[in-house]
Specification:
This protein is mainly alpha-helical. The chain has six helices and three strands. The protein is 73% helix and 8% strand.
Amino acid sequence: MRVRLGLIAVLALLYPVAWTAPLLRAGFLPLFGLSEISVLSGLAALWETDRALALLVALLAIVLPYLKLLGLALVTVRPLGSRAHATLQLVGRLAMADVFLIAVYVAAVKGIGVGRVETAWGLYLFTICVLAALILGWTRVK
């Protein structure tokens, strides 16, 4: 139980770092500098064009995965009632950080034909956070 809580605490600290860390560096021509793109900078760019979509992506890719993580911590400390457990399952299903991550990888692969796209260290950190949260969600508390 302590190890699980420790992992959840580490993830709770690493998620915000991963949101601000550069996921990709993208540019149109090799001669020009590459712009760094993070989860938050991508949301900021989306906010400029479509605020409703930006709010939806923020909810599904940032807020709900973090709430799921906090719910996992709560389940680890004490058992939940059936209603709270059902709510946590719903939050887990709506938490789409993993889908967002796949979309980033697809965008990186597709972007190579248009310009130059490089992965950055934040993509690896975000991937580790998402995978660790998925594994923690799959494991049972004993």
